[in-house]
Amino acid sequence: xxxxxxxxxxxxxxxxxxxxxxxxxxxxxxxxxxxxxxxxxxxxxxxxxxxxxxxxxxxxxxxxxxxxxxxxxxxxxxxxxxxxxxxxxxxxxxxxxxxxxxxxxxxxxxxxxxxxxxxxxxxxxxxxxxxxxxxxxxxxxxxxxxxxxxxxxxxxxxxxxxxxxxxxxxxxxxxxxxxxxxxxxxxxxxxxxxxxxxxxxxxxxxxxxxxxxxxxxxxxxxxxxxxxxxxxxxxxxxxxx
Amino acid sequence: xxxxxxxxxxxxxxxxxxxxxxxxxxxxxxxxxxxxxxxxxxxxxxxxxxxxxxxxxxxxxxxxxxxxxxxxxxxxxxxxxxxxxxxxxxxxxxxxxxxxxxxxxxxxxxxxxxxxxxxxxxxxxxxxxxxxxxxxxxxxxxxxxxxxxxxxxxxxxxxxxxxxxxxxxxxxxxxxxxxxxxxxxxxxxxxxxxxxxxxxxxxxxxxxxxxxxxxxxxxxxxxxxxxxxxxxxxxxxxxxxxxxxxxxxxxxxxxxxxxxxxxxxxxxxxxxxxxxxxxxxxxxxxxxxxxxxxxxxxxxxxxxxxxxxxxxxxxxxxxxxxxxxxxxxxxxxx
Lengths: 241, 334
Ligand SMILES: Nc1ncnc2c1ncn2[C@@H]1O[C@H](COP(=O)(O)OP(=O)(O)OP(=O)(O)O)[C@@H](O)[C@H]1O
Ligand SMILES: [Mg+2]
Prior knowledge:
The structure holds two protein chains of two kinds.
Chain A: H1 4-18, H2 20-39, H3 48-77, H4 80-85, H5 92-119, H6 127-154, H7 158-174, H8 187-195, H9 197-209, H10 215-238
Helix pairs in contact in A: 1-5, 2-3, 2-5, 3-5, 3-6, 3-7, 3-9, 5-6, 5-10, 6-9, 6-10, 9-10
Chain B: H1 2-15, E1 20-29, E2 32-42, E3 46-50, H2 57-64, E4 72-77, E5 80-81, H3 86-92, E6 93-96, H4 108-119, H5 124-134, H6 150-162, E7 168-172, H7 180-195, E8 199-204, H8 207-213, E9 216-221, E10 224-229, H9 231-237, E11 241-248, E12 259-265, E13 268-273, H10 276-289, E14 293-300, H11 304-312, H12 319-333
Helix pairs in contact in B: 4-5, 4-6, 5-6
The structure holds adenosine-5'-triphosphate (ATP) and magnesium ion.
């Protein structure tokens, strides 16, 4: 589709020239990895770092996606969106460009988290396992960034957007399978966790680490991503300001 | 002379489709009517929508650029319906919004190239160089926008809008916040575009600009067109001379033959007269007898301001009001 690459390139160029945000977005997940992954005394697994790393990777993608929604908010507040919407370029390429940038940026950040995890003692996987891991993270990135960008399109100002993103990020993370397996959770939490899309991605990455092809989680993830993407694209096509 | 001009335009109108055609275009924001039953045809000219703050100029532009759906009525741009053929409309227009938006972390060239790529312009590189040269930005093209002045940013936005050679250009307050020299420069560029055959739809609240640079003006007030025509026609509809009287306190407009009351802004009361220099002493006498305290009187040719005043009546909200407020502030300070 025309324009997708151009929109994506603009965001990468602006990000590259910004720089500070590149580091600050990594502080949270790195802190989780080090302080929780290394320090928490747990009994259900021998290497807790290996258990928690998939959760932290997905968390990195989640916060990359949610903070990425703010990009559209700024484009809207600063008047860029008005200019873009009046262009002959298909409007859905604004959305797809954002998704690719946000997901791409998230993948760069998760790579750094992966390297840190390896340095502090996580187990090295095979190239195929890494490839599959990236694929799952990419799917999850598409899902979360499409959702966040479309929410940003509808909210009025940046304050309400950041309220929205803090409101959903913590609950999503804690009701997922990031920190503990389903069988040690209380029953109510296990139910929530099994419905949480974050868990689909986390479970998939975990299964890859254990040498299993995560077909069920991937099918679920692909389905949800496709549905959300379809809805968001039609929202963008019809948008007025 | 004027006759042949009008004929030519009508002839054009029959031969080709009008660039912009609106019929009963209406927009409500909830209960507020921002644009009220607008019917216009605009072809191959610089058309200015002239009106005070909040009169519905931006709302009109947003509807014509397909960013906003009208509540009622319809419009076509280059023969394409703004609702049914929105994509086609967007491919023959360019739009520069009222609020400036250029990426300050990118260079001038990158900003223009970005739009060239979005439009899918052929030979993008050369075309970008060309429009940058037209807008006199070549020597600053590789500097970050951070270092550009307001006037340069506006010209850069024009360059962005012009990379794809639109048939209709929408400019929402292109000169707002610029100094006199920068405003003049922008208008010179707009005139040149017109010479190349582009239709330009511009909104402004500067009367003098509309008067000097535009072919036709629509005065809009509270969403309605109050007067429509070329600046000279509109001024000719008023009478020959305008007399402005500065008065302290109240004044009831007197009835004098050959003198017509136009309106009042602040402490200035305007009249038009067939023969200004003869009407001046008569008006002074009559006003003095009715008890008004005259501070000064001016005799001049009519301007669009007078047309505006007559068409719209006293400006309630915008300038007049703020002038008065400002004077009160000054008085308090003394
Ligand atoms: N999104 C909106 N929601 C509700 N009311 C609006 C909205 N946008 C504009 N209005 C109202 O519609 C009217 C027309 O606004 P518009 O922006 O078209 O005016 P304008 O002529 O462009 O003014 P200005 O010279 O200040 O730019 C105003 O009364 C304004 O308050
Ligand atoms: Mg406006």
